[in-house]
Amino acid sequence: MALSFLLDEINKIEKSSIREIFRFCFTASVGQASRMVFVVKRRGKTKNRVVDFERKEVGSWVIGYWVPKESFEINVWNCFENRWQRIIKAKAEQARIEYKYEGAKNFNELSNTFSNVLLVNDSAINALANVPDNSVDYVITDPPHGDRIPYLELSMMWNEWLQFNVNYENEIVISDSKNRGKGKKEYHRLLNQVLSEIERVLKPDHYFSLMFNSLDDDTWINLVQHINSLNLDLHRIETIGYSANSVVQDNREGGLKTDFIFTYKKNIKKITQPIYFYSCNQENKREFIEIITGYLKIDNVGRETYEILNYLVNVFLRQSRFFKPSEVVNLLRSNFQMENGKWIVVGDLNESV
């Protein structure tokens, strides 16, 4: 009810620029001003003092619509004011940056006038269809990573408050909801369509960066195979960490705690070589164990599952080879030992094999 009163007053503001920034602030506070904020107990974060295990601290809204048994009720007005102070601070920082933007209405205007910004709120497929061939200097994208986060489903609360008409059909995502019909097959089809469009609009000898993070075998295989079929050469593989880990990242066994950044260069003269998919079966088991063992012995401090997977992706993809992440996880469990959340080498390598 408090949120309703607040939004009703915001919508009465006549000046659109002021009204919209208050609506923006409202959206920033909706999730935190709900009964889905859980109570954190026994956090144990302390230095040089006795830990108060009975202390209760405010958590945050987590992935999924879930009302915990014990929730923190955050005052709507305090939450809104807190977000407003953050926005004011961000706007002050922006004001110090010597950058002037001129908004364009379409891609043609962006290319042929002094406009330098074009914001499009549409599906990638629809937006890219209006971009000419070989016209873009650089593309960077961070698409939904399979079934990790159902973005539009999670944004439904905001869309309803703001009365947005959202096209759920065009979302490129894997959803657990049977009613949506968003399985792997549909996800692969739409993602491949966008990747092909990106290759089409990119200028020759220019670069495209893709952020990706998944543990699903089929998703990886589709991605690697389709990009390999395009006029794109792998240029660089990097990883990027998160400023704050999520509940899913912290608790998902073997979860990749970093995103990959794959950068490709468009090569219209590319001679496509097939990607060879290695299985961690008996024939290739020794090679996988030797590579992992060599990596673990570099500093003998042990590595988490995601670190080993990151390393293997770098090694194999640069050689036009790939593997199933699930098989690597099984190989680790059967041939290496975990101590304090990290894999270590134990015993003779030959005995393991």
Overview of the molecule:
- The protein is α/β, with parallel strands linked by helices.
- It folds into three domains: 2-95, no CATH class; 132-271, Rossmann fold; 275-353, Arc Repressor Mutant, subunit A (Orthogonal Bundle), CATH 1.10.10.
- The chain has helices at residues 2-11, 16-30, 76-95, 107-112, 124-129, 151-154, 156-162, 184-201, 217-229, 247-251, 282-296, 305-317, 325-335, 349-352; strands spanning 37-41, 56-61, 136-141, 202-212, 232-240, 259-266, 276-278, 321-323, 337-339, 342-344.
- The strands form four sheets. Strands 3-4-6-5 form a four-stranded mixed β-sheet. It has a two-stranded antiparallel sheet with strand order 1-2.
Q: How is the topology of this model organized?
A:
Elements: H1 2-11, H2 16-30, E1 37-41, E2 56-61, H3 76-95, H4 107-112, H5 124-129, E3 136-141, H6 151-154, H7 156-162, H8 184-201, E4 202-212, H9 217-229, E5 232-240, H10 247-251, E6 259-266, E7 276-278, H11 282-296, H12 305-317, E8 321-323, H13 325-335, E9 337-339, E10 342-344, H14 349-352
Helix pairs in contact: 1-2, 2-3, 8-9
Summary keywords:
single chain; 353 residues; alpha/beta; Rossmann fold; Arc Repressor Mutant, subunit A; 14 helices; 16% strand; globular
**What is the mean pLDDT?**
86
Strands of the widest sheet, in order across it, are 3-4-6-5
Spans with pLDDT under 50 lasting ≥5 residues?
249-254
Tally the helices: what do you get? 14
CATH topology category name of the largest domain: Rossmann fold
Separation, N- and C-terminal Cα atoms: 64 Å
What is the level 1 CATH name of the largest domain? Answer: Alpha Beta
Largest sheet: 4 strands, mixed
**Would you identify the CATH architecture of the largest domain?**
3-Layer(aba) Sandwich
SSE-based structural type? alpha/beta
Shape: globular
Total DSSP E strands: 10
Radius of gyration: 24 Å
Please, how many domains? 3
Q: State the CATH superfamily name of the largest domain.
A: Vaccinia Virus protein VP39
Helix and strand sequence: HHEEHHHEHHHEHEHEEHHEHEEH
Helical content (DSSP H or I, runs of 4+): 40-55%
Q: What is the beta-strand fraction?
A: 15-25%
